[in-house]
Amino acid sequence: MVTRRRFMNASALGAAALIAGPVLNGAAEEGAAVTGDAR
């Protein structure tokens, strides 16, 4: 039970990292492009 719970938490964190990584990178690039266009 404990090992399964740990595995579930680890897999959830891994999936969140895989999803959040590209999303944050895309947001940062879009933000830089927007500020660059504004300037």
TrEMBL record:
InterPro entries: TAT_signal, TAT_signal_bac_arc. This is Twin-arginine translocation signal domain-containing protein. The lineage of its organism: Bacteria, Pseudomonadati, Planctomycetota, Phycisphaerae, environmental samples.
